[in-house]
Write a structure and sequence with these properties.
The complex is a heterodimer. Helices cover 27% and strands 34% of the residues of chain A. By secondary structure, chain A is of the alpha+beta class. Chain A has a domain at 2-68 and 102-112: hypothetical protein PF0899 fold (2-Layer Sandwich). Chain B has one domain (51-252): P-loop containing nucleotide triphosphate hydrolases (Rossmann fold), CATH 3.40.50. Chain B is built from 9 helices and 8 strands. Chain B has helices spanning 10-28, 50-65, 81-92, 109-115, 134-144, 185-188, 190-195, 214-224, 241-252; strands spanning 40-47, 69-75, 98-104, 121-125, 151-155, 172-178, 198-202, 229-232. Classes of the chains: A alpha+beta, B alpha/beta.
């Protein structure tokens, strides 16, 4: 369950930004989670309320925007959409595919008061 | 809008400005801060792991400055990481200093096994956490007093999922997979094999007794990570063990 550690990181980042950007409460948190990242959105949703309790983001709404997985085939140079880290190239069948998008796990923006 | 805290009280600021100026407004601040503030959007665009990554970057700089070659060993529980380290220390401890950080949820057992070989080891008990992080690792490095020009092996908590995300500042992640676990682990736990630079297939002496297809395992690993290097060995019997120690010496020397 490293989602709980990740959420503790989220809380820390919110606290830093609260000081830097002068806000005291967060009402909405938007995360961007790549399809190929090792994070399970459901586990994030499950842990979010628990980790944010008694913090500046208590009762905040959590939005998770999923980013598609994209790769480039090293054999035929085509760009392909990836569902898993081991998808072969859909054009030439090669398994030599470099991931170019989908590993992201980031806080995009917040609605704050 | 209030120019100081960004709250939505437009008129107050406008009225006060010509008379009292910004500083006066700061001191008097006659509007409430408890309610009626309008919501606003704050752009963050920051990685969830940015704090850990910042500590990892500090560790990496420290390792480079002190010529410490650091490996982060990951595997499922029981793949043979500690035995691999014990045998490695026996072969290499007279050639350069070695230090070990052991990560487990509980007990000192692994650190005790390492200390028995004569090299310093520090156990981190992560408690409920299922992985080491860069902050704790940095403290462990300081506490252990790792010598310059050392090989530092960090044995992570036995877990093929969580440690893949947490950079500790290492030069390489090394994933250990034993033949008793099944050849499809690389595609069952792709994140770890994607993050690793080297895969060690351990316990090859048991191949006659288990249904493990080495070629298939390697194919799966390369599907997940086309650049992964692979060494097959038996840490207990010593089969092909020199391929691993040669790899270490080769990678250590440019430091």
């Amino acid at each position: 369950m490293h989602e709980l550690s990740l959420l503790e990181n989220v809380r820390g980042i919110l606290e830093d930004h609260a000081l830097k950007q002068n806000f005291r409460r967060v009402t909405k948190v938007t995360l961007e989670i790549g399809k190929l990242s090792c994070v399970e959105p459901e586990a994030l949703r499950f842990g979010f309320d628990v980790v944010m309790k008694d913090s500046l983001a208590e009762n905040a709404e959590l939005i998770i925007a999923e980013l598609a997985g994209l790769g480039v085939c090293r054999q035929c140079q085509q760009q392909i959409e990836m569902e898993t880290l081991y998808d072969p190239c859909g054009y030439c069948g090669s398994s030599l595919v470099t991931v170019i998008q989908g590993s992201e796990m980031r806080i995009k923006d917040l609605i704050v008061i | 809008m209030c120019g100081i805290c960004g709250c939505g009280q437009t008129n107050t600021t406008a009225k006060l400005k010509p008379v009292l100026g910004q500083r006066q407004h700061l001191l008097k601040h006659d509007h409430s801060h408890n309610d009626n503030h309008s919501e606003r959007l704050v752009k963050v665009e920051q990685d969830l792991l940015s704090k850990n990554n910042a500590y990892a970057a500090q560790n990496r700089t420290y390792f480079q400055q002190h010529h410490i070659f650091t490996l982060n060993l990951v595997s499922s529980p029981g793949a043979g990481k500690t035995t691999l380290l014990v045998e490695t220390i026996k072969v290499l401890k007279d050639r350069f200093p070695i230090a070990v950080i052991e990560g487990d949820q509980q007990t000192e057992r692994d650190a005790d096994r390492i200390r028995a070989t004569g090299v310093p080891a520090l156990q981190i008990n992560t408690g409920r956490a299922c992985h080491l992080d860069a902050h704790g690792t940095g403290h462990a490095v300081m506490e252990l007093g790792v010598k310059d020009y050392s090989l530092l092996a960090i044995e992570n908590v036995g877990n093929l999922v969580c440690p893949s995300s947490f950079d500790l500042g290492e030069a390489h992640k090394v994933v250990v997979l034993s033949v008793t676990e099944g050849d499809d682990k690389p595609i069952k736990y792709p994140d770890m094999f994607h993050a690793a630079d080297l895969m060690i297939i351990n316990k090859t002496d048991l191949l006659p007794y288990v249904d493990f297809d080495e070629a298939r395992c390697i194919q799966y690993a390369r599907q997940v990570n086309p650049d992964i290097q692979i060494i097959q060995l038996s840490a207990t019997k010593g089969d092909n063990f020199s391929a691993w120690t040669d790899w270490l010496v080769e990678n250590l020397s440019p430091q």
